[in-house]
Specification:
globular, 81% helix, 286 residues, 11 helices, single chain
């Protein structure tokens, strides 16, 4: 009964995070600070859940990062380079399609980087790490928590299907899938959302600048950006690979929790794909 209660709560929290929360806030508050209210809502849910389960907030990744947490985040960030440069080279027209959907341009770049990006990243990290990966970890362990989180977070971006063509949509899904692998392993190792927040915000900020340079034909600035990121990758790639190897080894050594009963398997599948179900529901029924 306890496990069922936990799963129901995770699904409820995930539904709020994926869209129901923002839908309610948007329709009842009508303010320019909807995203800030959303952050407070998610933090309130974390506190609510910690009280019910009598757990410390550190169990949800809300704790002071250690020096190693920051170091691991900066190391993992190097691995985003090959995925990003591959997308840029193979699909050069993608940025011109992507920027209008984000509302990204030079007139709002400061607001975008200082306010919009940090708030959006904080929302994702609380929703995905504190209220999803942490919760699933407590039920199914590291291995299944990582798998479910990667799938769920990737499908969370399915909403792009309705505004991009198929090729660009697959680019989004593929790159997010690769990124989510790195961040899921980082959180499993650090159990700290400030570490994942750091690497996530670095990625979004640099990607935003790269997109602006590209769509405005500022070849020199874009070349400088890619060169600096490439050098960073070359210098830290060995450490990043070692980190992933050690993470995989720790995963193998960790106690493996198998899901033998049918209800447990169905629950795990539902948790993995639930964000997609919420997106489809909101698209056609709200």
């Amino acid at each position: 009964m306890t496990t069922i209660s936990q799963i129901v709560r995770i699904l409820f929290y995930n539904a709020i995070f994926v869209g129901l929360g923002s839908y309610v806030i948007r329709n009842f508050f009508h303010t320019q600070y909807d995203s800030v209210i959303f952050v407070l809502l998610l933090l309130g849910i974390v506190i609510f859940d910690s009280i019910i389960d009598k757990k410390k907030l550190s169990n949800y990744g809300l704790k002071k990062p250690t020096t190693n947490d920051i170091k691991f985040a900066l190391i993992i960030f190097a691995l985003f380079f090959p995925v990003s440069i591959a997308s840029r080279v193979l699909f050069p027209d993608f940025d011109a399609m992507y920027a209008p959907n984000l509302g990204l341009n030079y007139s709002n770049i400061l607001q975008f980087l200082i306010f919009i990006v940090p708030i959006a990243v904080l929302i994702e990290e609380i929703g995905v790490r504190s209220l999803f990966q942490s919760k699933i970890f407590s039920i199914f362990g590291s291995r299944l928590a990582i798998y479910a989180t990667i799938i769920n977070f990737t499908l969370l971006h399915f909403s792009w299907f309705f505004s991009l063509n198929l090729t660009n949509f697959l680019i989004v899904l593929g790159t997010v899938f690769a990124y989510s692998i790195f961040i899921a392993f980082l959180f499993d190792r650090t159990k700290n959302i400030l570490a994942t927040f750091l690497v996530h915000i670095l990625l979004n900020a640099i990607s935003s600048l790269q997109i602006l340079f590209h769509i405005n034909n500022q070849v020199f600035y874009e070349l400088i950006l890619w060169s600096a990121w490439g050098i960073y990758f070359i210098l830290l790639a060995p450490l990043a690979v070692d980190f992933l190897k050690s993470a995989f080894n720790l995963l193998k050594l960790s106690k493996k929790r198998t899901v033998e009963n049918l209800s447990g398997k169905i629950s795990l599948v539902l948790l993995s794909v639930f964000s997609l179900l919420v997106i489809i529901f909101m698209r056609y029924f709200l």
